[in-house]
Amino acid sequence: MKLVSIDEGEIEIEMKSELQGIKENLENIIKSKNVKNGKMECHLPHEVAAFIWLGWESGLKKDMLNFLKDILPAGKYKEHDEPGTPFRYNFYQHAQVKLVGEPTLILQIKDNKLYLGKYQDIMILEPVFKEIPKLKIFYRLYIFGD
I need a surface site. Which of 20, 37, 74, 92 has the fewest CB within 10 A? Predict the structure, then answer.
């Protein structure tokens, strides 16, 4: 297979929870661009948000959030401050996303969908979703053909 074209763009995600699956959003782009095989590079240009690979099961999501809150609790670290904003003393949120996530990821595309394991989902972890409910994802598609 060889690279036949590159397509890029951006989508906006409406965050409804702190840890939200986006596999369907990404696969909708793949289908709309009719990408049979390729790679998808995604980037989140947000400081307190990250991609995380995690199973879709709700108990796993709850355990992950509880784990993060246990190891990086609110109120312990107070050097980072943004007076007059809802982000006062939120170092713990910055650290949570950096501990388990990445701002950029590269995904395989096979047969018009993401090539993931049976239980895998691509999620966005964004502890500040109530203050910033809309996130942009920049993407680049590398489309392969014969």
Answer: 74
The pair of structure tokens assigned to 112 is 């018009």
Would you state the pLDDT for residue 109? 97
Contacts of 90 (CB under 8 A, 6+ apart): 48, 74, 80, 82, 127, 128
Torsion of CA 12, 18, 23, 27, to 10 degrees: -10
**Those residues with Cβ within 8 angstroms of residue 125's Cβ, 6 or more apart along the chain or in another chain:** 18, 19, 49, 50, 51, 52, 96, 97, 100, 101
The helix-helix angle for 58-71 and 91-100 (nearest 10°) equals 130
Give the start-to-end residue ranges of the domains of the chain: 2-145
Mean pLDDT per 10-residue segment, the chain (146 residues): 91 96 96 95 95 88 94 79 72 91 96 92 94 95 91
CATH topology of domain 2-145: Jelly Rolls (2.60.120)
Nearest-angstrom CA–CA distance, 47 and 62? 22
Distances in whole angstroms, Cα of residue 7 to Cα of each of 3, 29, 40, 117, 141: 11, 11, 10, 25, 5
Query: What's the pLDDT at 1?
Result: 80
pTM of the model: 0.87
